Fold each of these.
Amino acid sequence: MQEEVLTAMPITFDGYGNVPGIEVGRSFVNRQVLANAKVHRPLQAGICGTAELGAESIVVSGGYEDDEDHGDVIVYTGQGGRDSDTQRQVKDQELTRGNAALVTSQTTGAPVRVVRAVRHPSKRSASPSYRYDGLFRVEDSWHDVGRSGFRIWRYRLVSLADYVPPRQEAVLQEPVGRDNPTRLEARVQRIVRSTRVANFVKRAHDFACQVCGNRLRTPTGAYAEAAHIRGLGQPHNGPDVAGNVLCLCPNHHTLFDFGTLAIADDLTITDRATGAEIGRLREAPGHQVDQAHLAYHRDHYSEGWKHSPDTSE
Amino acid sequence: MQEEVLTAMPITFDGYGNVPGIEVGRSFVNRQVLANAKVHRPLQAGICGTAELGAESIVVSGGYEDDEDHGDVIVYTGQGGRDSDTQRQVKDQELTRGNAALVTSQTTGAPVRVVRAVRHPSKRSASPSYRYDGLFRVEDSWHDVGRSGFRIWRYRLVSLADYVPPRQEAVLQEPVGRDNPTRLEARVQRIVRSTRVANFVKRAHDFACQVCGNRLRTPTGAYAEAAHIRGLGQPHNGPDVAGNVLCLCPNHHTLFDFGTLAIADDLTITDRATGAEIGRLREAPGHQVDQAHLAYHRDHYSEGWKHSPDTSE
């Protein structure tokens, strides 16, 4: 059956996004059939993709002890560092191959196909089947110490199923040039809260970035973003209080979220890409940044730079 | 009935977001009752809000000849410039009061309550009733020449109804500090496409911003955003081709979208906030920017600066 699908597949499918002809919810009896359908091409690896182009697909198998599957939100564990016999974590995971691919997906906003291993409840020991569960985007990536005591890479993936792209219908009626309509689901959403706390912090700094002092101007005033140091919600569980928020320009917000910027307890800022100290976090009366949240950020967004192939760039 | 609602309203309601106790879809017999319920406070104006804090609510009455109501997407016309007797547009609209408030909502991402005037199909001449249709965000703002021949301000509002904030459930379980949970719907989504065209343009420039040359670095590579010069979809109908895309850093993407940057046909860049020429758009082999799209952008995102109270800043 999957062979029919392959034959019908338009030549424009480039590996990312929905596989033409494969609807969400379709089941595959094993990894070979799943691979033949090009939904998830490797037979063993949980992540399909490259550091350069990003991840095409992942399999959520429940095989990693640190995975969390909340349905529309998945906290996924990177690959590597497991003993091939016991499947136990025996060393640190590195930011290479599939792990790097998922970070690249975060930068590009390209959607990642999610496949879940489904085990029959009364036959837990039998081989699972595999269900294609649709497209997700990588919202966050960081490292942690797993239950095993070794470093693991983690990713927060959010379902795109309920997300209706505001302009999609209209776009599909337009000439799309050299583009491929199946790629229109690919988006980055830099989500910036505008809570009372966020507004308080932005006003305290008069919308000037706490890293560079830049203040973006719009016709009706200034624009700044409120960056949570320790993310809200699962799994970071940071509080929505002023001590956990920075007033940043969009560039430094992006760099902070990727761990390119490290902020020390004394508020000196280091650019991890160059190793250079680039200044000190600007302060404002009434806004005290909580050092515990800065430490959390340093502890979970720093390792990429030590293992990045790009650091010599 | 509305009085009961007012009595039950928590003291924390600050005018923005859902009014506690008022469900989406509730109807109000006239503007006075609507105002009493605090869903839309002014009795005549279509926009409630201030340039400083943003818009609380709008009424979509169909009274402006240039409004477009697509359900989840509304292209809304600003206020002013109409003859009070004939309701015809007789002069240019200015970027002040409600019109400026809607631009501020775009910068803060705060949700705007949308009320629609509902006319009985068989009694078109009777007074309409007013239905609260939920929260929208302002995705885009620009100016145009209306059917009347005068300048009008326009806003693209997108419903937040189908948008499930990824972290909302988790956040609601967390201590929210000084924040008000009803404000969690307030978000800015800077949506950046990662289509094949976008990737082509970003790679052509090796992820360096075409305005400043800055290249943001992440652990797995570089980060840039593809900015459509003429927006895709209704009502701008720009094409998704490389000539309509710029490779920008997040800061210059934000400034370009607000019209702070003007790019001339000879690719010189002017900062409208200061009036200073700040350089020339960087070019890359194989990527030719289409002057027609630059002209469209200049024609629709420039007027705010001429009328902004902030330009002397």
Amino acid sequence: MSQEKIYTAALVVIGDEILSGRTQDKNVSQIALWLNIQGIRLKEVRVVADDMDAIKEAVNILRARNDYLFTTGGIGPTHDDITVDAISEALGVDVVVHPEASRVLHKYYEKRGGVTEARMRMARVPDGADLIANKMSGAPGIRVENIFIMAGVPHITAGMLDALTGQLEGGKPLLSHQVGAWVAESEISEMLRETEKRHEGAQIGSYPFFREGRVGANFVVRSTDAHVMNACVKALRDGLDELGYPPIDGGI
Amino acid sequence: MSQEKIYTAALVVIGDEILSGRTQDKNVSQIALWLNIQGIRLKEVRVVADDMDAIKEAVNILRARNDYLFTTGGIGPTHDDITVDAISEALGVDVVVHPEASRVLHKYYEKRGGVTEARMRMARVPDGADLIANKMSGAPGIRVENIFIMAGVPHITAGMLDALTGQLEGGKPLLSHQVGAWVAESEISEMLRETEKRHEGAQIGSYPFFREGRVGANFVVRSTDAHVMNACVKALRDGLDELGYPPIDGGI
């Protein structure tokens, strides 16, 4: 099997509200699942404050070592929305008004009280940027170099991801299959390790839980190769059966 | 007002299951809220894969520039649980069996089939470490230098946090108060900016939403100084009122 390129992405979640515990992030899992379908692997995530230096540091390191970098948060009209300024500084480019973004915002606010200086902040982009359509509200997302600047509000981010579907070059999607069993993972850890070792190109994750007064675990087999994944899943099911723990396909 | 030390913490969330989107993280917000009460500010979070180098890099950078570093995940009995090994390497110390952890695990598994090699993996710690009590299951958390190694399963992490409550030196807790209004944040962004500027030591976060067919926003005022926070909240309420948007105390 030839070595295929694995496409990777990183995500920077920007916002004091995540770090203070006020808001439960939803964008990590949403973007991770979307990336899987595009054949791109989410490799690392950083959550940083609404702080120029913190954003710049994360953006510059992560954009250099991944094929794609996504950011969420900080692109609204208020004083704590500094993502565009920070990314422009990180890239060493000016902040400019994007004519199409300006047009979109004028149109959107035509029947909503008109544009204001604050609203026009949302037309500002790093020089050289393209827009990402936002069907949900006036303010577009922004694409510059390999960076995708998205909203913080999850359903707006979802709309932006929808606009990007199929637009990014990826590799083979990471396939996964889950098998569960009513077993303490420590009972079968040696079998898991051996099964993974015998199936190069597959990884087995083990996720224990305590439910209905009993311990159990779900095992997720991941591979970009369907053949390898299926062989590993079969070996895992057989292994559980032999040890006296009937496998439950799809997980518990 | 004298400059008071602000205590900071970072968190490394370890686990392929978060990066694949399979599992929705709950530990960031749980640990953030707990830290606030201890007078410690969560400054940055990284989510990394079950990968030695990725864990080591994050641990070494974040432990150096924060008062405390927390990790979640990767301390179970299976092959993908490599947190103790990675942190030991990051610190340049050996992995050793902790006698008390060994005793706890022997006792816990006495009526659960006895210890096995896999289960005894959970007694392994970086040399020099202390234990963090875990009332929920046999495996303890681990404290070494300024690093706190916690479980990935949120209710087990909660028990470990409980055991640490009041044990960590912190500063003044970060206070916060929320005010909401049925207003598009772009209508009042100038007032927000000015209000924040006039109250040094307070930050105002603006969090828009779309609900019941209307746009609104919640504003969170944060400060370590109750006097400053209350003055800023009052100015914010007055500002909203003057612009024709009745403030709703506590948020919407």
Amino acid sequence: MISQTTEYALRAVVWLAANPEKPLTAQQIAVATRVPAGYLAKVLQGLSRAGLLHSQRGLGGGFTLERSPNSLTMWEVVQAVDPLKRIRECPLGFDAHKNTLCPLHEQLDFAIATIEKMFTACKISKLIDPEHPCSPLCASVPKAKATGNSKRGKR
Amino acid sequence: MISQTTEYALRAVVWLAANPEKPLTAQQIAVATRVPAGYLAKVLQGLSRAGLLHSQRGLGGGFTLERSPNSLTMWEVVQAVDPLKRIRECPLGFDAHKNTLCPLHEQLDFAIATIEKMFTACKISKLIDPEHPCSPLCASVPKAKATGNSKRGKR
């Protein structure tokens, strides 16, 4: 449903959001997110072209998020790399369906609209929630737990 | 979000459901659904293998639905040809995420679960509703309107 490219883009964005201290190289992001380096390079290019990442060349350079995780949504990331397209007109090209889709395409479009709504409501900051029992894309315990300030406490 | 293969499969199933009088050949379905014949042949094979279609060889042969449109769901058709897969375990393979997905994969799985629920609730019979203002996959006016028994009346 969500393409591999989109899933990789979300991993990269989440990792950058969770590690904002300094720019990260493509290689560092590839290792952390377990995405093949060549594939990730293209994904990062796409995100940069869409204005979601800032890339800085040279020593100490790398990628940073161009937007705050509090304002950037999952939907924007999806649409930047492999957009989900709403069904605005009859895919069969029938003139009679110009203003009203048939029940099949109405239902399919409703499904896409539901995902659009869901991902638009989900900010990237929600995906790096330190209170969540599982750290984003990371094999270690959550930051909140590690520093002992988790509301959930240790388990 | 929904693959081309899945969308073609749904078109074929809807067309067969709307035209149950006699078996339809692959060529007849291809013309009606505006799907390239070669592509559709593979889709029909997939649907047959999954037990959703019955195919009958010879003169007067063709495809019919194996199940009633009142019991067959959109989800079953999707899963028969190009299944949407729930995220049951960490795609990065982290041991620490075995029992709890990270927020990103939790969110992605929730999206897939939502579509699963939506398509499971949608029977194929709903997609050939004669009261709908738009006939399924057909450039003509709805049957209900044509016979003058639509609750919506003529527009």
